[in-house]
Amino acid sequence: MSHTNAAQILELPRSTHEVRVPNRFNGPPGSGNGGWSAALLGKHLGQEVEVTLKRPIPLDRDIQVMTKGDSATLSDGSEEIASARLANLDLDIPEAVSFARAAEARANFAGYRTHPFPGCFVCGTGRCCGEGMCLFTGPLDTGVVATSWVPDAEFVTAQGQISAELICAALDCPGAWALIDRYAIEGPFVLGRITYRLDKPIYAGERYIVQGWAQGREGRKALCGTAVYDAAGEVCAAAAATWIELK
């Protein structure tokens, strides 16, 4: 057997196709929401994935997903904008508060007073509920936030479950608000990396609790955890994330 034939046999199969992040699903102005965009890439690999966001995610135009074995990349032409790989989530997840307590915390969301990205699809106060997710996480304790959540049927998949994109969006911004509460971060900062795990299906019209908690800060990097729980307090999804403060 020649070296060429051996290399061809060992090479992992590749798959490439185009995706698009509609304008509606923005985070910072002109860029896709980090959690939504992470799942758009990571869902091609599995239920437990690490996604690194390298550049702003373009909105409303075709971008390319390429999968190869246990990794994937998201590219805008020749420019790689995100990468993903299978990973194990290493995260201590706190117990859930009750749905009623999470709903109470929602009333004290810091973003009502000042918000770096009021147009954000997930937590933006400039979005009407139904047009955005309106996940307004208020403080439970220093560096710990929560909100109640009843997912909309608009985002149900063919299997009758809430889409991975919407779940990962719910795992995104709450962590940022926990960091803002803990470290009084004033300038804008963006999601740099998220490692998420999807444990249980999430259904439209059911009651869920979303919590976020600060885990540490290293210069411009800040670390946090997030989780979505059902009304019984069982974990449906969780994530560890690194946020980057913009200069």
Can you offer a commentary on this structure?
With 247 residues, this protein is an alpha+beta fold. It has two domains: 3-86, Roll (Thiol Ester Dehydrase, Chain A), CATH 3.10.129; 99-245, Hotdog Thioesterase (Thiol Ester Dehydrase, Chain A), CATH 3.10.129. The protein has five helices and eleven strands. The chain has helices at 3-10, 34-42, 99-106, 164-170, 173-183; strands spanning 14-19, 48-53, 63-68, 71-76, 79-86, 138-141, 144-149, 189-198, 208-218, 221-230, 235-245. The chain has an eleven-stranded antiparallel sheet. β3 and β4 (71-76) form a beta hairpin. The model is unreliable at 6-10 (pLDDT under 50).
Detail the topology: elements first, then pairings.
Blueprint: H1 3-10, E1 14-19, H2 34-42, E2 48-53, E3 63-68, E4 71-76, E5 79-86, H3 99-106, E6 138-141, E7 144-149, H4 164-170, H5 173-183, E8 189-198, E9 208-218, E10 221-230, E11 235-245
Antiparallel strand pairs: 1-3, 2-5, 2-8, 3-4, 4-5, 6-7, 7-9, 8-11, 9-10, 10-11
Helix pairs in contact: 2-4
Summarize the structure.
By secondary structure, this protein is α+β, with helices and mostly antiparallel strands.
